[in-house]
Amino acid sequence: MKKLLTFFAIAVLTACIFPTCKSNGSGTSSNGSDSTSAVMKKNVQTALNADSLITKHDMDGYLKLCAPDYTDYGAMGDKPVKNIDTMKSEMKIFFGAYPDFKAEDLKAYASNDAVVVTGTFSGTFKNPYLKMKPTGKGFKIFDADIYTFDKDGKITSHKSIVPGSIYMSQAGVVLPDKK
Predict the structure, then answer these.
(1) Which of 148, 141, 157, 155 is closest to 103 using CA atoms?
(2) N or C: which end of the chain has fewer CB within 10 A?
(3) DSSP string across the chain
(4) 116 - beta bridge partners?
(5) Of the candidate ranges 26-35, 116-125, 158-167, the one whose mean pLDDT is the lowest
(6) Lowest-confidence range among 11-15, 101-105, 106-110, 171-175?
(7) How far is CA 33 from CA 38, 52, 57, 110, in A?
């Protein structure tokens, strides 16, 4: 099942990202400073560092990798967040509820200005989350983070594939039906 999900996620992401790739034929980026390959390699490393900082619960370090106009789109159904203080607050609450949150088996796929990082994310609902009581149950989900970059190699946006409701249901949280 994991291989099927991996294949599906990569196929969808490839279809969405790679048609936007552009080549100027010279092997240099539009600013002439780096080859496309070098830019993609740098962006891959930045994306992997971003996921590493999140698993270390280091939002300040993560945000240093981001452009001033950074937007977090969350996952399907989430509202985009641009306010840094809101992001920090939300992640502090999440990390408090899931103190053992981690990512494993991370792999990165790149285009000119985007990187997809896939992996297995897990955690245990050990402490209150907003008004929800901890269940003591965990989640383990194969997911993907999509990062976009500006010409300076700063992250301009992030989006996750799997909705938070999937994580929560695995952790034993019963969510109300949407009306």
Answers:
(1) 141
(2) C
(3) -HHHHHHHHHHHHHHHHGGG----SSSS-TTSSS-HHHHHHHHHHHHHHHHHHHHTT-HHHHHHTEEEEEEE--STTPPPB--HHHHHHHHHHHHHH-TT-EEEEEEEEE-SSEEEEEEEEEEE--S-BTTBPP-S-EEEEEEEEEEEE-TTS-EEEEEESS-HHHHHHHTT--PPPP-
(4) 109, 146
(5) 26-35
(6) 11-15
(7) 10, 27, 33, 19
